[in-house]
Write a structure and sequence with these properties.
It catalyses: N-terminal N-formyl-L-methionyl-[peptide] + H2O = N-terminal L-methionyl-[peptide] + formate. By secondary structure, the chain is an alpha+beta fold. The protein contains 4 helices and 8 strands; from the N terminus they run H-H-H-E-E-E-E-E-E-E-H-E. The protein has helices spanning about 5, 40-55, 60-65, 165-180, and strands at about 70-75, 85-90, 105-120, 120-125, 145, 145-155, 160-165, 200-204. Strands 1-2-3-6-7 form a 5-stranded antiparallel sheet. The protein has a 3-stranded mixed sheet with strand order 5-4-8, covered by helices on one side. A hairpin with a 5-residue loop joins strand 6 and strand 7. The termini are far apart.
Length: about 200
């Protein structure tokens, strides 16, 4: 049975055993574009990737399935060298602890996503980045573009162009990197992991 056949079986829920770890060559390969119309498997895969992220953010499901929390997942992390990424960024409660009006700041499956324009300004998350394919902490600022314009296709083959900034921008860049064989720690300054370039935005 092929990887995609296993992942898209109706009873299968993606879990940590499906996610490959650093050292696996698929994580360093440049993934192939998908062609349209998508196969049924490619559509189902996108939905299952999004479902994994939902499960990983649900404390009960995450504990039951032994999942690490995630906001993004790329097909290469499932040992599939295809340009498919799923993004699920929750909105946080307000200062009074009230739940957000919209549950998610970004909830989408992107096919053939690419950055087509970006800001001159760089940005990094204050607490650094983690990755479901990396089982260790790698301290340092992961330097990315503060703002990006991303083009991608949805499962219907419709083309979209969105502008992203802040945390959403960082998450999408991290996942697009996976489809280009780039790991987050490639973007940390090896000599000075916490160096701040002029004008760099540090996102709390």
């Amino acid at each position: 049975m092929s990887v995609i056949e296993k992942l898209t079986k109706s009873a299968h829920l993606i879990d940590m055993n499906d996610i490959i770890r650093e050292g696996n060559p698929t994580l360093r390969a440049v993934a192939k574009d998908v062609t349209f119309p998508l196969t049924e498997q490619e559509v189902i895969l996108g939905e299952k990737m999004l479902q994994f992220l939902r499960n990983s953010q649900d404390p009960v499901m995450a504990e039951k399935m032994g999942l690490r929390g995630g906001v993004g997942l790329a097909a290469p992390q499932l040992d599939l060298s295809k340009r498919i990424i799923a993004i699920l960024v929750p909105n946080l409660p307000d200062k009074e602890g009230n739940p957000p009006k919209e549950a998610y700041a970004l909830q989408t499956v992107m096919y053939n996503a690419k950055v087509v324009a970006h800001s001159v300004q760089d940005a990094a998350l204050a607490e650094g980045e983690g990755c479901l394919s990396v089982d260790r902490e790698v301290p340092g600022y992961v330097v990315r573009h503060a703002r990006v314009t991303v083009e991608y296709f949805d499962k219907e083959g419709e083309k979209h162009r969105i502008k992203l900034k802040g945390y959403n921008s960082i998450v999408v860049q991290h996942e697009i990197d996976h489809t280009n064989g780039i790991m987050f720690y490639d973007r940390i300054n090896a000599k000075e992991p916490f160096a701040i370039k002029d004008g760099m935005l540090v996102i709390e």
